[in-house]
Amino acid sequence: MAEPIRTPKGTYDVLPEDQQYQTYIKKAVRHRARQAGFKRIEPPIFENKSVFDRGIGLHTDIMEKEIFTVERKGKTEHKEEWALRPEYTAGVCRAYVEHGMQQLPQPVQLYSMGPVFRYDRPQKGRYRQHFQCDFEMIGISDPSLDAQLINVLSHIFKDLQIFDRLKLQINNIGESENRKEYSSALKDHFAGKERNLCEDCQRRLEHNPLRVLDCKNEDCVILVKMAPKIDQYLSAESIEFHERLLEYLDEYGIPYDKNPNLVRGLDYYNQTVFEFWDQSTGSQNAVAGGGHYDGLIELLGGPPTPGIGFGAGVERIIWHMKEAGVKAPMKDQVDVFVAQLGPDAKKKSLKLIESLRNTGVHTIGALGEASLKSQMRLADKFEATFTLLMGQMEVKNGKIILRNMKAGKQEEIPFEDAVSEVVKLLGKDNLDIYSIKDRLGDFKQESE
Question: Cys-Cys crosslink for 443: which of 30, 98, 355, 391, Cβ 3.0 to 4.6 Å?
């Protein structure tokens, strides 16, 4: 017997249970997005690698260690590399430039949901293929917009009943010139101490010193505590912008921690950066994060354009929902199980099942050769609300048995009334479809 093939390391099958959670999350995201005027955009899963080289930065962990490149087949004049998207922002900003969205009313508010890919070390809630929801506001820089975006994310977490498990971490990393000066000061601080840093931070110190600040290695944390703080290098304008943002967050009633070591891992960030952390375990399990990227549009060929956005990890949201005991609404429940015995009953069942489904009733039919007893056991396993039973005698008499599975009671009703009776018992609010068209009359006429 051949050895079973399993999912690639760092990936997983989204089984029906988690599909329910994903659907629930998507509905919450879509509701808050529409409410706040965000429109859906879906950039391609793979892009020219240069989109991420320019946007994310060549010397970030993502581009150096985590990017998935795509092999191109056939001959091509241009030696372009393709890569699977490791995040949404760079692709959305490329689309903003390519499609002339600067001509639209600003800010342009866009959101996305789908898979992203990083060749990362798999860990709890972090996979090589994982799902994100992403929000972007492009075209205007104003601290009130930053606050509104964070408020939208807060409402999503409240809708999903996990907001109280999280805490907003926020920092101001200033403008480009501020960071250059601060990066130089960090290099001076760590000069002669490189051997005490972890291998990753030794590399980061050369190209992206700010990333040393949020390292979790114990030795690095000790050295960082003695390092100069970024607020010593911020401009007056940058400080004022951030103070106004905090005032707006206070107005919304969103609690936060000022975190001077929060920098985020991508080169395009400036000014505001933020993350929502798991209050019990800290940044290792950040559920969402984002910030300003006022230079990114220009790097991708557009005019200087401010922007701010965030990404939220769906797997980590689901983990928190389960830990909090939050149940995703069950939309795949079986309303009716149709059991039959005999060729005439099977023939009648086909049309009955179709009519029930077309009326919005979740229906499963056992159309094999199993006994009625076996079919009833199957109905129990599916946790069906009702079972409709039909044998040769019922077909002959134009009847069908309607059984309430929870109450354990049953009654014989006219076959032509089966659909209308089930709809009445289930109630309109429990049906997927309220009025595709009036099929009940058609069904009655055909069954006579």
Answer: 355
Say if CB 238 and CB 271 are below 8 A apart: yes
Q: Residue 270's beta-bridge partner residues?
A: 292
Percent of the chain with pLDDT over 70: 89
Domain of residue 437, residue span: 336-447
* 3-class DSSP state of 58: coil
Each residue's pLDDT tens digit, 1-22: 888 999 888 888 999 888 999 9
CB 339 within 8 A of CB 376: yes
Q: Is 241 helix (H, G, I), strand (E, B) or coil?
A: helix
Same domain assignment for residues 284 and 351: no
Q: Regarding predicted confidence, which is higher, 247 or 207?
A: 247
Q: What is the 3-state secondary structure (H, E, C) of 174-207?
A: CCHHHHHHHHHHHHHHHCCCHHHCCHHHHHHHHH
Cα 430 from Cα 32, distance rounded (Å): 24
- Non-local (6+) Cβ contacts of 45 within 8 A are 84, 85, 114, 115, 117
Shared domain for 350 and 314, answered yes or no, is no
pLDDT for 155-167, tens place per residue?
999 999 999 999 9
**Within-domain flag for 341:** yes
In angstroms, how far is CA 356 from the centroid of its own chain? 33
Cβ proximity of 328 and 23 under 8 Å? yes
The reply to whether 119 falls in a domain is yes
Mean pLDDT, the chain, whole residue set: 86
User: Is the CB of residue 309 less than 8 Å from the CB of residue 89?
Assistant: yes
Per-residue model confidence as pLDDT tens digits over 63-117: 556 788 887 776 655 667 899 999 999 999 999 999 999 999 999 999 999 999 9
Q: Which of 275, 291, 323 is the last residue of a domain?
A: 323
Which alpha helices (H) appear in 40-142, and where do they start and end? Answer: 49-56, 61, 89-98
416's tokens: 């032509």
Tell me whether residue 59 is in a domain. Answer: yes
Q: Return the percent helix, strand and coil in the chain, to nearest 5.
A: 45, 20, 35
Per-residue pLDDT for 443 more than 50?
no
- 345 and 295 in a common domain: no
Domain edge (last residue) among 271, 293, 323:
323
Answer whether 0.90 is exceeded by the pTM: no
